[in-house]
Design goal:
Largest sheet: 2 strands, antiparallel
Protein name: Putative stress-induced transcription regulator
InterPro entries: ABATE, ABATE_dom_sf, Znf_CGNR
Organism: Nocardioides szechwanensis
Helix content: 55-70%
CATH superfamily of one domain: Jann2411-like domain
Distance between the termini: 58 Å
Radius of gyration: 19 Å
CATH topology of one domain: Jann2411-like fold
CATH architecture of one domain: Orthogonal Bundle
Strand content: 5-15%
CATH class of one domain: Mainly Alpha
Length: 176
């Protein structure tokens, strides 16, 4: 499995407002085989997990290495991960989070933690962030080569750049 994708899905999970099962199904776009298994209990578990995971992204965004590592370790104790080797493609053995008897919430939590733990070990604990565009509070995973990402999306980046440009234009107009 592509652990970067697991990590990015964890950011997507935090950025999703899980008000009901339909919202969870919407979050699972492209994973139709999970749709019929979604329950309100999954939504409740995932909302709780969102509150637990957000501080890890916040710690990373302020270069709090200890907060990221301790936060993830604590979450992995609270939500044990059971990886298994998948052989659905014999030429490409890889790891998945075990899904037998797991709920949709347990699967998504396991994927998020496995992806984030692997990302932190491979790229470092400062690759998670909170969007710098006001008033956005979305989170993101920074896999850029120079670790330069500051916004959750191109939309927020454009909005921030336009706001900065307009502020500079106002400053020039006032000084003239």
């Amino acid at each position: 499995m592509d652990f970067i994708r697991y990590a990015e899905r964890s950011a997507g999970l935090l950025n999703t407002e899980l008000v009901d099962v339909d919202a969870l199904v919407g979050h699972l776009e492209g994973r139709e085989w999970l749709h019929s298994q979604c329950t309100e209990r999954d939504c409740q578990q995932l909302r709780r997990f969102q509150r637990e995971l957000r501080p890890v992204f916040e710690a990373s965004s302020v270069d709090d290495h200890r907060g990221v590592i301790e936060g993830l370790n604590e979450l992995m104790v609270r939500h044990p991960i059971t990886p298994r080797i998948s052989d659905h493609d014999p030429g490409d053995l890889h790891l998945h989070v075990a899904t037998k008897a797991a709920s949709v919430a347990e699967l998504l939590i396991g994927e998020a933690l496995l992806g984030l733990a692997t990302l932190v070990c491979d790229l470092g604990p400062t690759r998670l962030g909170v969007c710098e565009s006001t008033p956005c509070t979305n989170v993101f995973v920074d896999t850029s080569p120079n670790q330069s990402r500051r916004y959750c999306s191109d939309r927020c980046s454009s909005r921030a750049n336009v706001a900065a440009y307009r502020a500079r234009q106002r400053a020039v107009a006032k000084s003239a």
